[in-house]
Amino acid sequence: MAFRSGGAAAAWERRQPRAAEPDAFVPVEVLGRLSAPWYAGRFDDGWRPASVAAKQILLDEAGLRGPFWRLA
Fold this sequence. Notes:
Blueprint (H helix, E strand, L loop, with lengths): L5 H9 L13 H12 L12 H10 L11
């Protein structure tokens, strides 16, 4: 889900019966930086999904840390 601002995200969260993980909100700029390496080579012949460890490194490098972002 996309929001215009952190304030809009916070307002949405207050209206939810179950609170979202605080670490789950990500600025669009971070998603942009993460998407290039995450999907790199996806259309190449012989492409194979990255390992969980490799994906975790990408999340960590993007600054997405904390329990919500732990893959394993």
